[in-house]
Fold each of these.
Amino acid sequence: MTGQDHPRIAFAYADELSEYQLSPQHPLQPIRLKHMHELMQATGLIDLPNISSPHPRSATRGEIESAHDLDYVFNVSAVSDGSLLPDTSKFGLGTSDNPIWTGMYDTTALCVGTTLTASELVMSGKADIGFAPAGGVHHHAMRRYASGFGIFNDAVIAMNAMVNAGLRIAYVDIDCHHGDGVQAGYYDSDQVLTISIHESGQWLFPGTGRVQEIGEYDGLGYSVNIPLAPYTQDPEWHAAFDEVITPLIKTFKPDVLFTQLGIDTHFQDPLTHISLTTQGFNLAIKKLAKLGFEIGKWVAVGGGGYDLSAVARSWTMALATMANFNLPKEVPAAFKSFKGLTKFADQPPARNESPYLAEIQQFNSKTLDEVRTLIFPKFRI
């Protein structure tokens, strides 16, 4: 990066990405991005001289097909325009998680385009950090089917272009759900080190992400999973981060850091059970920022997050951390989307009482022991 004090940040965002609806009951509410953007504006973040706001382009059909089969892309495009096709369920379409809605293809292509816009500006040297908060939520999308709210896997599409350019990437996914679609995209590759720290699949969708999923062929050892116990709080989560993620990235020495910054790890999230605070989340951003500065290229996308206040505050805090900008402790009075919201930081939930804390620590310690056994020898750690 050109300078740690004032890194050049490309914030790729479009209002259109907050203006659609998957279904009236769907937990993913795109309006969360509108609230986030309004909070960023209220703090003055968007007006900082080192933050640019390029309007994103849409991903091309060819770019999407770099990560997805042609018949799947055709089906998404067709049903998006209202066509009735037989057996769309085999592509994961028309489920409660992935309903069919008018304009799905174009909106998702624009979402992918935000990630591509951010990554291209970083790759070209025009930005040190690219942040596309609309991206990342598609990290469950597979080559032939939609999954877990994901249609086209923007992270895989963007990283495919980087791999084709000869770059090695460290992908870090801090979403509460295992980043299975991205892992699948590079399971046999040694060009992308995928690291996912998540709530164990014993309790949470998609049911994958065991430590033993370590890659295959050339990718053996390059898929790293850190499944944690439900109700893991800030101290235990960061202990796992520090134990595994930092030393692996420093040893791998990537050309690019690519991070998925899901905030469904928040203790008030309605779909998950990890119990991070906004300040615990932002501490992770600070650690990633340090790694990003050392590597020199950092692309960040959003991800899950179903408590709207946590999303707005956390991604605003993340952008401020990227820009090395000190947010006020108080939420600006000009931000009126949520009544009674006064502070960026949370009052932490009560610490788990024994024996539950002991059980959580025991589960997480077992995970770390397994990672040390299965992964660390590959990197001579």
Amino acid sequence: MNPSSSVKVRCCVVGGGPAGMMLGYLLGRAGIDVVVLEKHADFFRDFRGDTVHPSTLQVMDELGLIDGFLKLPHQRLQKMDGLFGGTPVRIADLRRLHIKYPFIAFMPQWDFLNFLREEGRRFASLKVMMNTEAVDLFRRGDTIAGVRATTPDGAIDIEADLTIACDGRHSTVRERAGLEVEEIGAPMDVLWFRAGRKADETENLFARVEPGKMMITFDRGDYWQCAYVIAKGEHDAVKARGLQALLDDVVRMAPVLRSGIADVKSFDDVKLLTVAINRLKRWTRPGLLLIGDAAHAMSPVGGVGVNLAVQDAVATANLLADKLQRGCPTEDELDAVRRRREFPVRMTQRMQVVVQNNIISGALQGGARPLRVPLIVRLITALPWLQGIPARLIALGVRPEHVRSKAAPTS
């Protein structure tokens, strides 16, 4: 496939998700000639990651974007309450944190991404190319020199001093670069669907756990977003039981969904989200860096994936923006991003595995015996001052990043 055209930029960011759009914004703000490639025509898709945590809200504040951002439609969550085998539990209380934004904002990810794209239009050095899919890398010797992409008008070569892959857990760039992934594993998958919500329907429960079953519900204003957790590999068995059996289980666990569950008309309305936890052993090649889900896929435990991706983007701009003014950083300079971000990634994944192995796996195994609330959950519920610990880990993460990259002077 011969390209119909070519362009040259200082930095090519592959993928217009949270990591890619935030990084594009930060580099454009710094005056770096950067292009972001997004393979879809728009951002309007059913993402799993719609939680914007205080760490990301703080970044938006540091960029001077928070007022406009919080004008977008969203819901706020401060307390994480649940039912564990019928016993009320409180998992976290963000009100106990002494931070500027002690809440999680539930916002459609397409609104978040569109907001960054619109705000980024004021930077002449930033270009976002929609409907443009990176399909291969090209090299000069051992150095990655850019990407070949497809567009509705044909193929295009994008030469770049630095290519940064933010193209998700099924990264094409990662596969083309031959980077090795370390699989950590997860015992569950998630069935993701919506149920209608009436204006007078309110409920503060976040999680419900019963023997053999687990479900999370998010109040999204005019609908309930539902995550029904199943054991890994059980999707076919769930479908074999039939849609009505699934919906009956859902309504038994969450009676508040009874009136709106009719919105789920077939299994086409139920998306299977395959849960994976993995990370790269090496995040770089000469001329190439991977961040976000392309470098480390996270479990949905804690809902931290979007926010870790944003943190990666902030760290990348902090470490590389000045160096990009002069050309491509060396591979050792690129690897500074991994050295900065690997510890919080590893610690977060380790905590997710602990929750998976000690709470989720036991719940999904079911059995006739009553479900016992794990000791740690009982302690957190009984001693309210402990609720700030999981709240801090969820809200801010292990090593929150702050914007250090400079904004280019404006004329």
